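ok posting inputs for the zinc ion job
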Amino acid sequence: MTSPENRHVCLAGPKCRNASVVEGKKTPATTEAPDSLCTGCVRSVQRATEYLPRDYVALSQAVGEKARAQGQRVKSSPARQAPLNVAVVAAMQDIAEALDRAAEVVSDGLRCDPPDGHEPTRVSDAAVMVSTNITKLLTTDVVECWEWQNDTHCEPNCHPERCDDTQHLRWVERTGIQFGLRLRKLHQSTASVIGVLEKLLKLSIACAHCADYQPLYQYPDSGTVVCKECGYDWTTETFGLLGKILEQETK
Ligand SMILES: [Zn+2]
Ligand SMILES: [Zn+2]
Ligand SMILES: [Zn+2]
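and the output
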């Protein structure tokens, strides 16, 4: 029997892949080394990292050219309903930024340069660098980096110029494991965004608010009709006018 002092638990905590339920309580798997992830979590972080470039491409295919060409950081505040395109572009930025940060950590350890160049090539290069050196990432101790956080007020560690009402760029301390778990979380949340997008029904009518004839989409579960481009909710108007002229199409 291992004595409690020698037992370490997976730092993924309740999100541990190999967690077991002990007396009704979710308990993370034990690990050999302290402050580490269990083998199941290491593998799942690695697989998520490998998959993120495909998530990025799938998201990019789901939004219009216009949304992608914005170039600036977009805001997706959980407080208000953002147009779908804004949420999707924000998810793409989150993936690119998280992979950039993780690749910087790994390249520091390997004493080489992180991938540069444009997305989506940089995104896939960073994912290859991180996933093939996953141990390097997950054994990295504390590093300091800039991180965007949703919040309503500035803290002393905020960037002097980049903040606005809802998003703050802050100088924070992160461990390699935190970077890794963030990559896994991003892959999971993207999967649910893509799941919603794939179910959307494309209607054969254009949004009257958008000058360039953006098609309207309907959520099959709620029946809500929205414009992905401007976010306007056309549900009441559309049903009054058209009933259900639907084209089963996704993108
Ligand atoms: Zn685990
Ligand atoms: Zn701030
Ligand atoms: Zn519109």
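notes: The radius of gyration is 21 Å. The CA atoms of residues 78 and 169 lie 17 Å apart.
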